[in-house]
Structures are given as structure tokens and as C-alpha cells.
Design a protein that fits this description.
158 residues, alpha+beta, two-stranded antiparallel sheet, 5 helices, 20% strand
Length: 158
């Protein structure tokens, strides 16, 4: 999940408001989301996705069927998406929800970003999702985000 404010008029006021918002979010346990987003945004992978979107019209955030059109279940999924071809994001969408089902498309192994556990594709997992963690899975052969995430957690930058 990428966090960014898109429009503003007063740069000085915007910086003050943004700093207050981020501070509040971190105090309330939402800082991990922001730091994971910042980590994702800094990756060469994201730059490449943005270039493909600009040059070829490929969406950066896309429905599951975009990358897995041959898998019928992917045409029915409405509450998870791909960030490029390698990052599966399954956000929590409802108040008081702290777990959810996530379908991992077949043909690949998938690594849960938060703990590095690897799962075989072609199955639906039931995952827990505390308020400060979004279920994110990395497709086999995708960018290596797990080590970066571990370093963020170890350095208490969240």
C-alpha cells in the first residue's frame, strides 16, 4: 500500500500537517505501514513499474486476473490486488477486522513479507493481520523485500 498525499497548495502548511499526521499514525501503531510504503517506493522495482505504466499503459496496482488470467478464481477476487507482477497485497478493509483469507495464485511460491514464511501457490490461506500489518506476499523471483523488512523491524524504525 503506497501512502502519499497528492494535492496541496501551501507547502509550509502541508509539511506541518503531514508531520502531524505521520506522528499520530506512528503513535497509534500504524507506523509500519508508512515505513513499508517508503521502503517499497524507494525500490528500483517501483521505478520500473512506473516507467512501464508511463510507456506502455501497464497498471501498477492491478486486479489479480491481470497477471493470472488463466486462473478462474482470480477473476472473482475483489479485495486483494497485485502491485506489479510480483507483490500481492491483501489489505484489511473493514472495521474491527484482524484476519482474512488470501488466495495465492498457483504456479509459484509466495513469501509472506512480515515473517518470511513461504507458501505454495494454488491455495487460500487464512492470515492474521494486526492493525499495524497488511498481508503482503512476494512472488517467487520477485524483489527481495523480506530482508529489508527485517532490518526495519530490528532497528525499531517502525
Amino acid at each position: 500500500m503506497i501512502f502519499e498525499t497528492h494535492a496541496h497548495y501551501d507547502d509550509e502548511k502541508f509539511d506541518e500537517d503531514r508531520a502531524e499526521l505521520l506522528s499520530s499514525m506512528q503513535e497509534n501503531g500504524i507506523g509500519r505501514i508508512i515505513n513499508v510504503s517508503a521502503n517499497l517506493e524507494s525500490l528500483e522495482n517501483t521505478r520500473k513499474l512506473m516507467e512501464e505504466a508511463h510507456l506502455y499503459g501497464k497498471p501498477v496496482m492491478r486486479p489479480m486476473f491481470y497477471d493470472f488470467p488463466e486462473q478462474d478464481v482470480c477473476w472473482e477476487l475483489k479485495e486483494q490486488y497485485m502491485f506489479g507482477p510480483s507483490i500481492l497485497v491483501a489489505p484489511i478493509l473493514y472495521e474491527d477486522q484482524n484476519e482474512r483469507d488470501v488466495y495465492l495464485p498457483s504456479g509459484n511460491k509466495w513469501t509472506l513479507l512480515m515473517n518470511g514464511e513461504v507458501y505454495e501457490g494454488g491455495q487460500t490461506l487464512h492470515v492474521t493481520a494486526p492493525i499495524d500489518e497488511i498481508p503482503v506476499f512476494i512472488r517467487e523471483g520477485g524483489p527481495d523485500l523480506v530482508d529489508g523488512w527485517k532490518k526495519i523491524r530490528e532497528n525499531h524504525e517502525i
